[in-house]
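sorry for the late reply, my laptop died twice this morning and i had to redo everyting from scratch. anyway the thing you sent over, i finally got around to it. pasting the sequence first so we're on the same page, its 127 residues, then the predicted structure underneath. double check i copied it right bc i was rushing
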Amino acid sequence: MGLSSFFKNLFGSTKESATELANDAENTFEHVKEAAAPYIEKAETLAEETIDKVKEVSEPIIEKAVDYANQAKETVIEYADKASETITDVIESIKEATSETTDDTKRLVSETVFDTSEAAVEETDKE
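ok and here's the structure:
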């Protein structure tokens, strides 16, 4: 029976050691958690302050970007109107030039067309 009591003592003391280690680990974890709490709060505060500063600094930059975008939009609209007017002028100019050319062509055609019936009459009179 010496062997069985040996194993009982061995496993019994191991069980007690494991329980003690678990308790120690739990206590250590609680201490670490308590010790880290102020640092966690400081980190949260720092993060919030940093976010607020970034917002504060970026706000004027965003406003300037919006202003520049609006100015660019106005400039584009202004030049678009001018371009539209110029294109309209060019189209009118082309229409006028085309109209003048068409009128000249009609005049040339009417000057070169001759009445063939009169020539035939003159030739019959000569005979």
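The two ends are 168 Å apart (CA to CA).
thats about all i looked at so far, will dig more tmrw
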